[in-house]
Amino acid sequence: DAKTTQPTSMDCAEGRAANLPCNHSTISGNEYVYWYRQIHSQGPQYIIHGLKNNETNEMASLIITEDRKSSTLILPHATLRDTAVYYCIIFSGGYNKLIFGAGTRLAVHP
Amino acid sequence: EAEVAQSPRYKITEKSQAVAFWCDPISGHATLYWYRQILGQGPELLVQFQDESVVDDSQLPKDRFSAERLKGVDSTLKIQPAELGDSAMYLCASSPRTGHYGYTFGSGTRLTVV
After folding, report:
1. Could you say which of A22, A89, A91, B33 has the lowest number of CB atoms within 10 Å?
2. Closest residue, chain A, to B59 (C-alpha)
3. Is residue A53 scored above 70 in pLDDT?
4. Contact yes or no for A100/A4 (Cβ under 8 A)
5. Which of B7, B34, B105 to mutate to test the interface with A (most CBs of A within 10 A)?
6. What distance in Å separates the CA atoms of residue B70 and residue B75, rounded to the nearest whole number?
7. What is the mean pLDDT of residues A18-23?
8. Residue B50, Cα to own-chain centre: how many angstroms?
9. Who among B45, B48, B105 is closest to A43 (CB)?
10. pLDDT band of A1, cuts 50, 70, 90
11. What is the C-alpha to C-alpha distance for residues B29 and B68, in angstroms, rounded to an integer?
């Protein structure tokens, strides 16, 4: 599975949109972009995934560039409870492994 | 909302002792995963089950770790003997089957080896 590059940390004001970038320049055609987050002392939580089209659910939006080499997770109105480590993962499904990197530590402040 | 249950939540053990963790996945989920997360790092997959069969245990230190899922439902991860370096969070996750389904993780077992 392709590797990803994410900023180590970011911060965001409460109520504003949080835009978390992820580079995955070696992604191949059958690989999906997944996002998980991990709030302190809890297990990771699935957020969203996509192949090439933009996706939106009740938690977030995922914007994937046309060349699929990068993506952005958008939390439209960040709250203090969104403070967490966010993992961008490239996953081809099947029996392949979901491999976590170091992620981006997002701090939402009042 | 359905959850993945793990117990115990916390465990302190002395090195060279045996320790076991239990996981009950979401009902009907065929695929079960055990991950280990060292403080400050992302989770690392130890073993993956499809029903009762091991699909991938390439990262499992087999000299001291074992995992089983006898009836294809709940699972146990065992360490014997525990070493200081085994101190970590042990996470269990499940998914309906292989493919593009989000994994659901439990809250984990925090192991401290002293």
Report:
1. A91
2. A97
3. yes
4. no
5. B105
6. 7
7. 98
8. 14
9. B105
10. low
11. 16
Q: What confidence score (pLDDT) does residue B98 get?
A: 67
d(CA B79, CA B17) in angstroms, rounded, equals 8
End-to-end CA distance of chain B: 36
Residue ranges of chain B whose CB lies within 8 Å of a chain A CB: 4, 33, 35, 41-45, 48, 50, 55-56, 91, 93, 98-100, 102-108, 110
Assigned token pair, A62: 């995922």
- Residues A25 and B81: beta-carbon distance below 8 Å: no
> Taking CB atoms and an 8 Å cutoff, what residues of chain A touch B98?
93-95
Other beta carbons less than 10 A from residue B38's beta carbon: 13
Mark yes or no for CB contact B45/A42 under 8 Å.
Answer: no
Which of B94, B79, B86, B62 has the alpha carbon at shortest distance from B21?
A: B79
B41, B56, B102: residue with CB nearest A102: B41
Give the closest residue to A35 by CA, choosing from A22, A49, A24, A25: A49
Mark yes or no for CB contact A98/B45 under 8 Å: yes
Q: In angstroms, what separates the C-alpha of B31 from chain A's closest C-alpha? A: 10
pLDDT in tens, chain B (114 residues): 789 999 999 999 999 999 999 999 999 999 999 999 999 899 999 999 999 999 999 999 999 999 999 888 999 999 999 999 999 999 999 998 767 778 899 999 999 999
